[in-house]
Write a structure and sequence with these properties.
Elements (H helix, E strand, L loop, with lengths): L2 H20 L3 H17 L4 H21 L24 E3 L7 E6 L2 E7 L9 E8 L2 E6 L7
Parallel strand pairs: 3-5
Antiparallel strand pairs: 1-4, 2-3, 4-5
Helix pairs in contact: 1-2, 2-3
């Protein structure tokens, strides 16, 4: 095996190993480009065309991956209302008195500022935390389960 073929297959193998360590599919797509360059070398194509073939295959593979569901960006979720980030979301607090849709309440052994979410009534006694904005709890009236 001559040095040109060894370079292509070695680069593809190294990229595959790095892909296993990184967990993304992008290095795998570039490894496909190296395989295409190796196949072009095996077919006897000139070196500059080998590189062009490898680059085009890698570029097309990366673009296709980017447009697929595996390579696209995940929808960003606002951390203020994400239950996976703030474990307080969904907890119940008691608010006895409102002042301009704001109040103070005791929650987890400390006094917290509470703000009523838009469109929520002030007449409920129990509220559910829907978001955290800094040290302020955003709450909505807790829905009472229906009695059967």
């Amino acid at each position: 095996m001559e040095i040109g073929a060894l370079w292509w297959w070695g680069a593809a193998g190294a990229l595959l190993v790095l892909e296993l360590l990184s967990g993304t599919f992008y290095l795998l797509m570039i490894a496909l480009g190296c395989v295409a360059g190796g196949l072009a070398h095996w077919a006897g194509v000139a070196p500059h065309w080998q590189f062009a073939c490898g680059a085009v295959v890698a570029l097309v593979a990366v673009i296709l991956l980017r447009r697929s569901r595996f390579g696209g960006r995940r929808a960003r979720i606002d951390a203020a209302s994400d239950r996976d980030v703030n474990l307080d979301i969904g907890a119940t607090v008691t608010v006895t008195e409102w002042h301009d849709r704001r109040a103070r309440t005791n929650y987890r052994g400390a006094q917290w500022d509470v703000e009523l979410a838009p469109g929520e009534p002030e007449d409920a006694r129990l509220y559910e935390i829907t978001a955290l904005q800094g040290s302020r709890l955003i709450v909505a009236a807790r829905k009472q389960p229906e009695q059967v």
